């Protein structure tokens, strides 16, 4: 069976032709008018990017290469005795559009374990960070510093031809993903204690090794949770802040480490990935204010007090989705299966019954339903990972899968530097003066 790189080498020439044909047939067709509000409104709904790994439907949620989350859970190879998909398989799917065999997935696990060590100077950077520096800032620093050994940057400096860009990009993408557990594990132990970082096991899967480095390898259910967690957080089409930032920075031919470091800085914002931390902080505050088993009315009041203070309800709303996020539902199903009696899960469920009605009544949010971040923290907390300001790091590890897959294709297909047109308010006023 071919390796991922061999499979890619087979797929790329046909895809170059496919894109050429698509542009020849449809290149001059319009998606409709661009309106001025979109320039002021965060480009909402503006068709602007090609992203092949996944597409988001407002009603149905994400599909990875056409497959829904339940389909992916069903189709992708599992670990021995496990029932959640291995993220290695999801990466193969994102890159090739094909479901890999168990053997191909196992080969990826071994390859990533073999590439997993980080340079000692990066270890030193992390060891010198004050524990008060947010884990996401430490994560971004370390990923950016991996650019020291970028195969792409080196090949570019040596004059590589455009048509070969994808090859060192592929190597960097694989190294990037492979090295994240050692970075995340080191940050976790430096900030929260837990002793010396253990070694990656060469014959174990990625999620097992990540769990091991965090100190949770003795909890098989937590390892299963990580497999599901990475899979569902990996990709959410191209327009979200982290994915788009990675693509944008990569378009300047900055290598995958520089590009993904930039993604992480966007993911660290409270309206994006940091929302998973914010949700837990918000729930804990609610618990300390209302005590165990609050009434629905008390929760409702608490939600209203958040809105009246001019804050957002974290974990609710979405720029694209208009229904409950299927990633939320996948996590809810995991909770119903493994931790139905967990008091914090019960609170999350109670909040799920109350917040949408309050947001509808308040009448501002276009989507009153929960997103992925409303549920992830409570699952991690259940297994003892209650260090809330680490949560976005796990989102970041996962998001590398989607961003890396697209970076490989962008370089294979010769994607140009991104440079949309901007306007000043004065220019807009002038343009529409008499219209
Ligand atoms: N709580 C309170 N107000 C909200 C919420 C919410 N959860 N969601 C939207 N609104 C407000 C929003 O702030 C805006 O107010 P204003 O007109 O005063 O500026 C108004 O409703 C309209 O916003 P939308 O068009 O519905 O939302 P938009 O597309 O601009 O933003 C989010 C999307 C996700 C940033 C927004 O829903 C939000 O802030 N949610 C809470 C934070 C969160 O959960 N983020 C995680 C998203 C998923 N992820 O991992 O990235
Ligand atoms: C994501 O996973 O990136 C978030 O849901 C945000 C988005 O899609 O805009």
From TrEMBL:
GO molecular function: acyltransferase activity, acyl groups converted into alkyl on transfer
Signal peptide as annotated in the record: none
Origin: domain of life: Eukaryota
Keywords: Transferase
PROSITE patterns recorded: CITRATE_SYNTHASE
Residues of the active site: 272, 318, 373
Protein name, UniProt field: Citrate synthase
């Amino acid at each position: 069976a071919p390796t991922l790189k061999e499979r890619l080498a087979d797929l790329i020439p046909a895809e170059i032709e496919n894109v050429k044909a698509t542009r020849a047939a449809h290149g001059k067709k319009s998606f409709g008018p661009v309106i001025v509000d979109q320039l002021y409104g965060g480009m909402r709904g503006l068709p602007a990017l090609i992203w092949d790994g996944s597409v988001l439907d407002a009603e149905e949620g994400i599909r990875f290469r056409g497959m829904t989350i339940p389909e992916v859970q069903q189709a992708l190879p599992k670990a021995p005795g496990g029932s959640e998909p291995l993220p290695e398989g999801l990466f193969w799917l994102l890159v090739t559009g094909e479901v890999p065999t168990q053997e191909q997935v196992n080969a990826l696990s071994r390859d990533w374990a073999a590439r997993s060590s980080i340079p000692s100077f990066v270890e030193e950077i992390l060891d010198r960070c004050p524990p008060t520096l947010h884990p996401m800032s430490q994560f971004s620093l370390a990923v950016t510093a991996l650019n020291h050994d970028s195969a792409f940057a080196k090949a570019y400096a040596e004059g590589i031809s455009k048509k070969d860009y994808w090859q060192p990009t592929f190597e960097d993408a694989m190294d990037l993903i492979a090295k994240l557990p050692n970075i995340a594990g080191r940050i976790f132990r430096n900030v929260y204690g837990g002793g010396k970082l253990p070694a990656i096991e060469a014959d174990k899967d990625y999620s097992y090794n990540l769990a091991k480095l965090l100190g949770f390898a003795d909890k098989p259910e937590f390892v299963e949770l990580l497999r599901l967690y990475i899979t569902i957080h990996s990709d959410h089409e191209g327009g979200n802040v982290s994915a788009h930032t990675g693509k944008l920075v990569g378009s300047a031919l900055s290598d995958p480490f520089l590009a993904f470091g930039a993604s992480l800085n966007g993911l660290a914002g409270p309206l994006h990935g940091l929302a998973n931390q914010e949700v837990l902080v918000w729930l804990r505050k609610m618990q300390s204010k209302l005590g165990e088993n609050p009434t629905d009315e008390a929760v409702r009041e608490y939600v209203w007090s958040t809105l009246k203070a001019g804050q957002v309800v974290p974990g609710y709303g979405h720029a694209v989705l208009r229904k409950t996020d299927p990633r939320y539902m996948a996590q809810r199903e995991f909770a119903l299966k493994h931790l139905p009696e967990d008091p914090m899960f019960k609170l999350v469920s109670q909040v799920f019954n109350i917040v949408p009605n309050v947001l509808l009544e308040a009448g501002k949010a276009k989507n009153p339903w929960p997103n992925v971040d409303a549920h992830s923290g409570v699952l991690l907390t259940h297994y003892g990972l209650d260090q809330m300001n680490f949560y976005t790091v796990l989102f970041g590890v996962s998001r590398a899968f989607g961003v890396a897959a697209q970076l490989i294709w962008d370089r294979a297909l010769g994607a140009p530097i991104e440079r949309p047109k901007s306007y000043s308010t004065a220019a807009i006023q002038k343009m529409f003066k008499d219209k």
